[in-house]
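User: Show me an example of a complex going from sequences to structure tokens.

Assistant: Sure. Here are the input components:
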Amino acid sequence: MIDEKGLRTDGRRPNELRPIKMEVGVLSNADGSAYIEQGKSKVLAAVYGPRELHPRHLALPDRAILRCRYHMAPFSVEERKSPAPSRREIELSKVIREALEPAIFLEKFPRTSIDIFIEVLQADGGTRCAGTTAAALALADAGIPMRDLVAACAAGKVDGVLVLDLNDIEDKEGEADMPVSYMPNLGLISLLQMDGSLTFEEFKQVLNLALEGCKQIYKLQKEALKAKYVAIKEEVETCLQS
Amino acid sequence: MIDEKGLRTDGRRPNELRPIKMEVGVLSNADGSAYIEQGKSKVLAAVYGPRELHPRHLALPDRAILRCRYHMAPFSVEERKSPAPSRREIELSKVIREALEPAIFLEKFPRTSIDIFIEVLQADGGTRCAGTTAAALALADAGIPMRDLVAACAAGKVDGVLVLDLNDIEDKEGEADMPVSYMPNLGLISLLQMDGSLTFEEFKQVLNLALEGCKQIYKLQKEALKAKYVAIKEEVETCLQS
Amino acid sequence: MIDEKGLRTDGRRPNELRPIKMEVGVLSNADGSAYIEQGKSKVLAAVYGPRELHPRHLALPDRAILRCRYHMAPFSVEERKSPAPSRREIELSKVIREALEPAIFLEKFPRTSIDIFIEVLQADGGTRCAGTTAAALALADAGIPMRDLVAACAAGKVDGVLVLDLNDIEDKEGEADMPVSYMPNLGLISLLQMDGSLTFEEFKQVLNLALEGCKQIYKLQKEALKAKYVAIKEEVETCLQS
Amino acid sequence: MSSIMTSKIRQRQIYQVISSGKRLDGRGLTDYRPIKIEKGIIERAEGSARVLLGKTEVIAGVKVEVGEPFPDRPNEGTFTVNSELVPLASPEFEPGPPNEDAIELARVVDRGIRESQAIDLEKLCLVPGKKVYVIFIDIYTLNHDGNLIDASALAALAALMNTKIPIYTVENGEIRKTSEYMPLPIRNYPIAVTFANIGDKMIVDPWLEEEEVMSTRLTVTVDKDDKISAIQKGGGGALAPQQILEAVCIAKEKARELRRLVVDSLG
Amino acid sequence: MSSIMTSKIRQRQIYQVISSGKRLDGRGLTDYRPIKIEKGIIERAEGSARVLLGKTEVIAGVKVEVGEPFPDRPNEGTFTVNSELVPLASPEFEPGPPNEDAIELARVVDRGIRESQAIDLEKLCLVPGKKVYVIFIDIYTLNHDGNLIDASALAALAALMNTKIPIYTVENGEIRKTSEYMPLPIRNYPIAVTFANIGDKMIVDPWLEEEEVMSTRLTVTVDKDDKISAIQKGGGGALAPQQILEAVCIAKEKARELRRLVVDSLG
Amino acid sequence: MSSIMTSKIRQRQIYQVISSGKRLDGRGLTDYRPIKIEKGIIERAEGSARVLLGKTEVIAGVKVEVGEPFPDRPNEGTFTVNSELVPLASPEFEPGPPNEDAIELARVVDRGIRESQAIDLEKLCLVPGKKVYVIFIDIYTLNHDGNLIDASALAALAALMNTKIPIYTVENGEIRKTSEYMPLPIRNYPIAVTFANIGDKMIVDPWLEEEEVMSTRLTVTVDKDDKISAIQKGGGGALAPQQILEAVCIAKEKARELRRLVVDSLG
């Protein structure tokens, strides 16, 4: 899956991200929302809350409860997926929730819930990372106070080469895949999974590669947030002028 | 399915109802109940309520909640039906509930529920209408104050002929089926569905045909209610004489 | 299944129990626990409670609620069993709960629940009886005040011979199986099921045989309880001496 | 009316009357309520029956399909018993999958039929190991006024006796439905007789209010040869061995009485 | 923001404005909101479309598999419509299996497609009685601002028109996928037109706040020949026959208008 | 006793002791509790093992069936890992389908086995594309005193090493079970090593009270060649890259230690 020029199936160099498009505030009902396209992966995230929690006895007296659902549309994958949540979706919902939790000041909203909904509209690898990235944007869009953004990106090993941001075929046929989420200002990793086979030395390099990817994603997140505020500002100004 | 004399598979004329038998107050535990046989369709309806609602947080401060379950016995159809509610049963439960709702003074019973249970014991077409008709009787039998009775009947198109009260084979093989429920005193339609293919002109005629059917059913409902009160009166008198 | 010497497939005489091993207090988290091996059947029971009940509206003002789950490990039987509770497991959970209920002073713990969990690790016949026996030990181990222990044992008919404590093949291929639980001090039977074919006279004899088995099991239960207290005493003494 | 829970006073009354050997509705301790059995009430089902036991009302419907045998019984048809406590029958019943009561009920009826070998399953094999008749017995409780087990067992038996199954021809392992029907091969008539223990008395056929007072329930299923096919103790109480033996004796008599009713109703 | 329930005052306002023949957003009573249809947005799906109806946003995706036909239609492919009201679309939507609203929505869209015979199912048979194309139409609501039925029906139709199915070769009853694709055979274009009854007025394409005020909903699905394929009344109110007849008339006009949009968008 | 939630005071104590480089039970920060592995405890299962890790107790049972391969791996057997947190193991566990913790546990164990290619799946093919061995690994937690992942992974590996599978003969695509058995072909020995982050320390094999105090959990699965097969971060905290690298280093050593134990126990 790496050609003689060292390029990947989609023409990328090993340490190159796929083309990424992010947009913030795409849904009118949600308190915050974001859309991300990373290569052919297309993921939507929405945040509702902080809001009253039902049933009430689940509420915590000293902080908000964070809930997260990662879900794939039936048409997002090669073979139609049943809409009932799979074991994989249940695990990823947990992993993503735990990736976002350290970034949020949950203690500011006791007795409430903050609900994150991630819908994978099209899956081509890296959807848990794209979902985490989009969810962090949606949280920011909802105005929820955060210690840092969370930027996520995978790295791994394909045909003996360490590569960044694996697509579906690289993930499935490659030797290792390692999704990572990073909070650059805090210097902390909040999501880390790996499967495959790596020596300790390789692991170190792959981790660094993933962190580099996260940092690039982080920049794109900031731009996407800025773009929204510019858009709002323009809207307001147009409004005032008219 | 229409012979040279213009008669249907079961010998009826196009605008003729099937033989109908109604009985009110057939179950001793329910607050109200009714049984209907319409051709080979046999349907039982029971009403519980107004009664306390569990879980309580579902209760409404200004009116009763109306709940309805339309359910088919496993042995009611040609091939045994799983007892778990099908999508069709879930939809019909909603449609029947919404057909009965405008007839009931729900605002007289805040914080309670009125529960309607419809069991199809044998299905030969028109069971949602028969269920609606029986449920209206059961509501009256339970002494729940109503704006009007609700009488239901389908009409449709079979082999190019507009017909009343389709049986199973006419429904399945015919060109259109249109279940309707009507409140004759109010002159209002509370259930209306259609599937098939009808021109606007045909639609108008089929609707009128269905309304004529509803009016006949309405008369039978009144007789069934009267029969029960006569029966009670006789019982009381026998009791007094003895 | 009975040879010319009158012995059974596993070499036992008709009125002989299988080798039985009981141990009390085997799990550290549970409030009470017990383990039983009866032939190749291996069953673990644990008790939690009396404890606060969720959801609270299920609580009773005048006594504890007794709950019981009989469950088989997927690997406990010849063909892997789905972990979802089967109809058989649901019935046996009820039957075992009702076998233990008359032995417990539930009225001493209003508004609480006492929860019994039985896990069949390996099944070779008689697991509902072994589960009942172990659960009674676990209740005693949890310090829950009881009117009597409950000892359970099956008897039945195999190849025309009345036998005690049927194993799996005897249960499946035999003519009758009758699980019984007994409270020897009260002289009362609290679990009784039978399936097969027995004359009235045979029934009488099988019932007596089962009661004899229960009495033997009862002795073993007492020994197992004593063994635990001896063990605790020794532990305490060792502790004091050191 | 929505709550049919009997008041404490009423409960004490029931208890005391039974202690003195009588019952509030005038029955003797081992009398059944009036029983009415109607057959063939659901024409679309291959077999059906309705049983009225006092005010308790139960319908059983039998559906017949063709399916695969169990691997360990390649030459036998199969049957399953399912029970639904539909919510129109009692304010205590709720919609949803069968709860433990419904499951126990179905399994007790099932065991009576299975252990008495009421259905000749070997006659229900079409292609050994491949195609057999599959019998679904669905029991529907329409009004619950106590003793659902006996009413359900009666309804199931009557429905089975009323069942006609389509005849198939078999050629080269392929089966074809004919337009002919034959009766389901029935060779035994198991009858469930249920007792309630109230005070020191064992009464037969408890009605709903008596069930609320009873400490223990005991069901004895007896077959046509007076053999016991199944027993089930229910409820959170306990019984002395002697009480059980007496109940089994009475069950034999009662079963004969009820069996006559079912057979007559299908004459 | 988390609660989008309209206040009582707002509700009265909506009601009054409509009574006077206008709408709060400036539309006429029978005007649709701006509609935008995008096709082929999910490359992995065999067909897909996104519909924006004002702020209501719906995606439909079509997946194609090979499976067995229904026994009573051995020569026809099959299709199913599924709808999910995913929780990111509204604070009122909850995760879990489809509720009655989602099921009704899917079934109304399904009936429009089925009764107008929009898909030529006979062309979707590969091996009669054995192998046919199986079409899954999944409708995903992304933002709920009212009138999900019309948006969903539009999205489903646009996605079907956008669908390419793999061509198979059949040899001796064995099928083999080729690398070729062909368009899904579409032969009708059913359009759902939904009315809300508010006061004595029937308005078209209600948005969310209007839906909260309406007493009754009426959906009329009209096919390319101006024939009515499906009707569904929803909501707990009732309608006079005359109101229904008028709505059906208007629906015919509106359906033509919308049909043009779908066809154009797929040029 | 029914609540095993650790008190705030106790939590602070645990935290402080660990900050000073010690643990309340006297272990060093990277010490495991005593481990006991018993094999073959469930004779009816094709393989089984019990693991005691301190007071944490886990059983794994292996069942072997014959089934179909996945379409994209026609020449390989399949396996699934399932975990049940049965309610007798902890007052926090509830009956019902596996929750997210049980699912994560099973999937982490599964990935360790799968990615290290511990089972030689190609040797588990009977008839390519049709019949393969299907391996079920069921993990049962009997007592939960922390670090279920490592105990479960150990139990699963020991049970697999203990597994004997029936030998089948294949003739004309038909398979027949013989009375012979062979060991399951195992070619790697993945070991999961779990860390808890408490304060600035990474400790190995946390017990229950430590788990309640930890901010983050990190599991590193290492194979027989010291390669990393799987990693899983859990819990709502975060880690510095350096902490992760150090943990991975320690995991390598610990895995060797534990691997020796499993292999020895099966001598």
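The lines above are the inputs; the final block is the predicted structure for all six components together. Residues 200-241 of chain C form the longest helix (42 residues).
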